[in-house]
Amino acid sequence: MSSRRLVYPQLSKLALLALEEGSTGAPPLELAARLGLDAPGGDAVLELVLDGRFEITPERVGLRRWTRGFPPVGETIVALDLEATNGNPKTEDIIEIGAVKLSPAGREEFQSLVSPDRPLMPFVSKLTGITTDMLEHAPKAPEVLERFREFLGDATLVVQNASFDVALLTREFAKLSHKLLNPVVDTVDLAHAALPGKRKRGLDTLSTLYNVPQGSRHRALDDARITLSIAESLYFSLAAERDIHLKDLNHEFKHQPPSNPTQAQPGRSKSRRRHRGR
Q: Which of 109, 101, 87, 178 is nearest to 141 (CA)?
């Protein structure tokens, strides 16, 4: 079966919720009826309306993540989110790093506040809940970044709307005479491919669509956890039965023209920062 696009996101969401109730799958006719597709041939329509996260056979509909690991064998990934003093990656300072690593060794998390050299903007403090007092005794950027660089290693970096975070991290690494050479997967790029009919692809929209629980939004570690879960859903949606690394899948779809160029929309704004639409 070729990769299916998520053209009917609400039906896919309802199917996901139905299957997760039992965690064992459902006969196609039964699932079709639960989705309101109980007309003759409704089970055949499942092939058209469900994306690559779903494994469909004549006997059963299940979820690929039940039988296949993420990330694929041989690839380590790190989902990253940064919070900053304001919205310009050329001038602002990191105030928090949050990351989640999936590797053969298992799941690891990284989180640290960072004491900035620039003042924290009031709207950022209000949005994130991070205060000047919280940052007063936090470690400085060089110490945190050296620890994060060791944590990151040569993993594939996964970021929601990566332009801000990657530019800021690249600048901060350069101050320490390091280069950021890791492959980068932007979940917005994957969402462009998986959701050709969706205009909004911000973190809130995608987490709702893929039924990803939200923790403390606009805190780095919780946003990194959300990004990782979204990346997993987008991976299976686009890869379907193919055994392909996430970074290669990203490269494949990133270099395809959009099915409708007029629908290409940014996933979130990075001025006044990326704090809107994340």
A: 178
